[in-house]
UniProtKB/TrEMBL annotation:
Keywords: Cell adhesion, Disulfide bond, Extracellular matrix, Gamma-carboxyglutamic acid, Phosphoprotein, Repeat, Secreted, Signal. Binds to type I, II, and IV collagens. The keyword Kinase does not apply. This is Transforming growth factor-beta-induced protein ig-h3. Plays a role in cell adhesion. May play a role in cell-collagen interactions. It comes from the Eukaryota. Residues 37-91 form the EMI domain. The keyword Acetylation does not apply.
Amino acid sequence: MARPLPLLLLALGLAAAAKSPYQQVLQHSRLRGRQHGPNVCAVQKLIGTNRKYFTNCKQWYQRKICGKSTVISYECCPGYEKVPGEKGCPAALPLSNIYETLGVVGSATTQLYSDRSNLRPEIEGPGSFTIFAPSNEAWASLSAETLDSLVSNVNIELLNALRYHMVDKRVLTDDLKHGTTLNSMYQNLPIQIHHYPNGIVTVNCARLLKADHHATNGVVHVIDKVIATTTNTIQQIIETEDSLETLRTAVAASDLSSLLESEGQYTLLAPTNEAFEKIPRETLNRILGDPEALRDLLNHHILKSAMCAEAIIAGLTMETLEGTTLDVGCSGEELTLNGRPIIANKDVLATNGVVHFVNELLIPDSAKTVFELAQESEVSKSTDLFRQAGLSSHLTGSERVTLLAPVNNVFKDGLPVIDSNMRNLLLNHIVKDQLSSKYLYHGQKLQTLGDKELRVFVYRNNLCIENACIAAHDKRGRFGTLFSVDKMLTPPTGSVMDVLKADHRFSTLVAAIQSAGLTENLNRPGTFTVFAPTNEAFQAMPQGELNKLLGNAKELANILKFHVADEILVSGAVTALVRLKSMQGDKLEVSMKNNVIHINKEPVAESDIMATNGVIYAVNSVLQPQASRPQERGDEPADPALEIFKQASALSKVSQRNPRLAPVYSRILARMKENSGGF
């Protein structure tokens, strides 16, 4: 019975998905080489070397391996050969025994040593074997001392070395699973296999160069190194290496010895004695004396999986036991960590992973003070400011705090002068308790070391504390957290009415609010956004329009309510158009253009004047809802306006001295004298 087409397609899809990473990159190389004939593979070759790679699609277009340029060459895919006069590689390699196959696949030296060590009869005879055969270049790269020790005792040392490269069964690349071990034919000692997502396969950290060459009695894989037996765990390597003495002490103090002795596949980035010596003594003593910080430090040097150097051909992110990540990459022959070539000795193999020696200590955020976090971030100028203000002790000890540190760009014109007011302001940038931004919620209240209460505002595109919005992911240190913010924070000093009264720019507005009976509303607890017209805004109105507005108390109240929304919107929340419902009922449109806030397309003169019950924006125009815009103008203010200007006069003599407002005051005073004989 025929299989239904959908099920057949599903089966084919699952079969394709089951291909190993190596087979996937090999297939990609076949696709890139097919224009040159059957069974031709495209390989990337590092310029100036003999190193070749089958690569995936991304690497194909980048044309780089470890940051170095490559050239594309075309050669027969594994298992095929050319035929004179024909295109491509149409013929399969002749199937012969392993010994003969070694000579065909470019491992003539292994073939020679097999003969000299009397291994030849075994790999010519019946059986089923797999041999990981070092290339000719691999044998040539051995030190003279090592090579001499092998060839001077061919019947024991060389034979044992070759048998360690063998497995007594047929193993293809699809069988080489990541993190597994194979028992070698030398005392059943394990061979470690790693099969990485980028298609690279390593055997004891030696890279497979040519894989899956079939023989009548097994299979041959060519590798780029002569591999050696390993019997030590990572912990035993630490205990026997003189250059890891300080690390040995630290591991013992943190109770990590049992982990590094246990079964598993880890990568230890082992800091040498030199790496510890580079750290300031005070910092090192603090970490070594703090069990939690020390454990975080060491776990930050342990990757969750074994990563051989040969598998790294581009940058990748690796997770540590501490839960953090490290950027592991390469630059030419050098491995890099977080972009720095600090690995001094690589691929020291252990039974439970691999060790790379590093000459710099990698201190995670969780082992740092807030001060150290700030010094290494885009808030280093803030660090100088807090230090000058004598507040470093709050940021270097065991006090649980969160620092709201403005980014360096805030101080592009220089640091402010430290005085008592600035010191108090900086104290209000230090929040009591160690916070995490992901747990902050809208309306939350935070207490500062300056005894101020700060509000949290959560918006669709931003998270703000008062007028300052978080500009980067927070960094959590040992006892404190760093929030990088986009501006200096200005804690509120009073209600909306208190702030307006204290600012002479708003004296006419204050008088109008009082006349319209809105004072109590703007004094009560709430969440207001007020677009506050300045005296200049009233002055700029056409005279007739101004007279009419100030002469109609009901219309005045209506207009003033149009300037107030019953929710707090700070400037950091405005990246696109934001619509607010005013207390008058109509919508207000707030937008950002050329880094300037606009309200109903009018530019705002000053943003984020914080109050305990809201935020104020100074505007140099009086906003009017569409339905309330005047149709005709008069020349004189109506009598009810007299009281408004009388109040404004009492609030600000500055307005009376303004050359454009002075005539209005003169006419009002004259009218008042005619009607009442003076004040």
